[in-house]
Amino acid sequence: MIPADSPSPVQHSAFVAESIDGTALPAGFEAAAARRTRWELPRALWAPRVTVLRDAAGAPVAAALTAGRLYSPSRKIIDVIIAPGADADGAAFSAAVEAAALDAPAPSEARPSPVLVKFEEHPMLAPLSARDAATLGALGFQRDADPVPSVASTRAAAAEGVRSWSRWSPGTGPKRLAPYYGQTTDVTCGAVTALMALESVGLGRFSLSDQAGNRAWEIEFWRRATNMPACEPIGLAVATAGAISDANLPLGEPRVVLSAEGPVLLEDFGAEDSFESKLRVELQAESLRQAEELGLQIERRWPEVSEIHELVAAGNSVFILIDLEPLIADPTPHWVLAHDVIGDDALLVSDPWVESAQGESWLDVSAQPITHAGIERIARWGDPEFRGIVVLPRAAD
What we know:
Number of strands: 15
Low-confidence stretches: 1-11
Structural class: alpha+beta
Strand order of the largest sheet: 1-2-3-4-5-6-8-7
Shape: elongated
Largest sheet: 8 strands, mixed
Number of helices: 10
Radius of gyration: 22 Å
Order of helices and strands: EEHEEEHEHEEHHHEHEHEHEEEHE
Strand content: 15-25%
C-alpha cells in the first residue's frame, strides 16, 4: 500500500509512483471531455485517490483514479490515463494498474484493508485494447459476468455503461453470486433484492436483452410487496413466497426475523391517526394475515450479525433492511441482498442502489464485501431502532 500520509514518492518498477488525495487529473495528461467528467464527479465520501506514475526524469507517464465505499474491504480503479506517447510497450498501463491496486487509505474500521480490487472499463469512453485486457488477466483480474440491463451503468452500449474486472486476495473470492440488477426507481429496492435472490436460484424472469421486460417485472413484483411506497419485511416475505410458489422453485418458505413488535417504516406519514399512517398500518396488518395464512415463520427478536453470517454461510440468502446514511450520507431505509460470506468477518452484498451522481456504477454495489462492523452499523432503522431481515432458504440439493 502507498501510505495515505506519505510525503515521499514510492519507487515502482521503472517508474516513480506517488499518491494524491482527491480526483484532480494531474497536469500533463489529456482526456476527452466526457472522460474527464468521470474524474470530476464528487466522490469525497468514497476517499478518492489519484496514483501518478513518472519516469526517471520526472515526466508524467500514467495516472489512475481509485475510490471505495465505506465499510467495504475493496477499492475500484475508475480510470487509467496514459500520457501521450508513454506506453509503446504496455509497461505504463501495467505499472499504473499495479500501483493503483495497492493505493488505499490507511486502514481503519470504516476503511478496512482491501481484499478486492475492481477495474472499471468504460467501453464507450475508453475501451480496453486486447493488449491491456490481456495485461489485466496477467495481473490476476478476471472479467465479471455482465449485469442484467437496468440502470445506465449496466448497459455497456450506453454512454455511462461499464464492464467489471475483479481481483481478489488469495482465498477470499466468492462462491455464490447473484445476477446484478440496479433498481430503476427510488422505491423498488426491496423488490429488486428479492428478485436478485430468486434469479440466482433459477427464477428466470430477467433477460440480458429485454430491458423493458426487466423493468416491467421489477414494477410488478414491487406492486405485490409494497407498503406504498416502501416494502416492509413481512409484506416482502409474502410476495417472495408467492413468486416461489408461482415458479415452483425448489425452495422452502421465506421467514422473517424482526425486532419490532408492530408496524414499521411509518416515519413519513404523520400522526398515528392520520389517514396516511392508518392506511400503512392496515396494509401491514393484511400482510401479517397473509403470512400467517401461508404459515410463514415470523420471529420477533433482534438478529445478530453473527447469526446473519451463519445463515448466509449455510447457503441461505438474506435480505437485510439497512440505513443508507452511513454508506452514502442518505438517511433512507433500504434493502440489500447478502448472498455469500468472505472469510469470517464480511458478508458479500449486492445493493440495488447505484449512487451515480457521485460516481458510482454497478461495480461499486455488486458482490461487494462489507465487514461485520459495517453490517452492525447499517443494519438498523427507526426510533427506537429495530432490525429486520428476510431469510430465503437455500435451494434443495
